[in-house]
Design a protein that fits this description.
Number of strands: 14
Order of helices and strands: HEEEHEEEEEHEEEHEEE
Helix content: 10-25%
CATH class of the largest domain: Alpha Beta
Shape: elongated
Number of domains: 2
Distance between the termini: 88 Å
CATH topology of the largest domain: STM4215-like
């Protein structure tokens, strides 16, 4: 992962003389250069793999922080919301910019100025084969519905759609739908109510495209109210409380939340019909 980020920075930022690990860089290193500090892996979620915090520190000669500002912009453009592949291992991951790591730093010993940039690295998979993903008819129906909406109204964009988990080498722009909660409530002897909470992740390197897609889907969810589950048998899901959050990132939290509900009948065993009944007085 560290090598893949280094290659991405070197290919994207020609000003960098090199990108080092912390123990390699020193006072004699030719500036400007970058330093990668890698954090600890944590099991963040099941749909996008584990999460790791990585810091990128651009070092320039001790002149003006305007040069650091320029490098900061280029580093964010190179890594934020980008899909990166480790050519050696086949690992696929994405970086999400989290902000700066504290205040600007002046290193008198190295005659340099720098600033730390924090990224959350969401590693989709660390294996060459995708694990099996359980399918859900409700999520499949919602995915088909959203595909129709975006392909009809977001002209010129080829969207990809995923269910419950991002696959190895997923495409962008894309939408991932997953179930976050599932419950059933009795409504009497004859039936019950199925209620599924669903989260939608709109993933794209373009903020404008993400916002446009989130707005479109939420508005259409409110407008349509019901989504077909099985048209031939006239089964539908009811949409409840769809909401969009433009500030949420697509990989970690997801920008769309909603509930899908449907009433179902209880399964009952058929008993033989009583043709006649006999009794006697006591």
């Amino acid at each position: 992962m560290r090598n893949a980020i280094r290659e991405k920075l070197m290919n994207s930022i020609p000003e960098f003389k090199d990108v080092y690990e912390p123990h390699v860089a020193g006072p004699q290193s030719e500036k400007p250069y970058g330093v990668i500090r890698q954090g600890v892996d944590t099991e963040d979620n099941e749909w996008a793999g584990f999460r790791r915090i990585v810091e990128i520190w651009p070092y320039v000669s001790r002149t003006t922080f305007t040069k650091v500002d320029d490098l900061q912009k280029k580093i964010i453009e190179a890594l934020d919301q980008q899909l990166i592949t480790n050519q050696a291992t086949g690992a696929v991951f994405s970086c999400v910019y989290l902000g700066t790591a504290g205040q600007d730093v002046t290193d008198h010993e190295w005659d340099a100025i720098t600033r730390g940039l924090r990224f959350a690295v969401m590693a989709v998979h660390q294996v060459e084969e995708d694990p099996e993903v359980s399918q859900d008819a409700w999520v499949s129906a919602l995915s088909d519905w959203s595909e129709q909406q975006l392909n009809e109204q977001e002209s010129g964009q080829a969207w990809s759609f995923y269910e419950n988990r991002l696959p190895l080498g997923y495409q962008r722009p894309s939408v991932l739908w997953r179930i976050s909660n599932h419950r059933a409530t009795s409504t009497g002897k004859a039936g019950f109510l199925i209620d599924k909470e669903v989260v939608g992740h709109v993933i794209s390197e373009s903020p404008d495209l993400r916002m446009s897609a989130v707005s479109l889907l939420v508005e259409q969810l409110v407008s349509d109210i019901k989504i077909p589950l099985d048209i031939t048998s006239r089964k539908y899901m009811t949409v409840v409380q769809p909401r969009g959050d433009f500030l949420a990132d697509g990989l970690n939290r997801g920008q769309i939340t909603l509930r899908l509900t449907r009433r179902a009948k209880r399964l009952t065993e058929e008993a033989p019909v009583i043709n006649e009944a006999q009794g006697r007085e006591i």
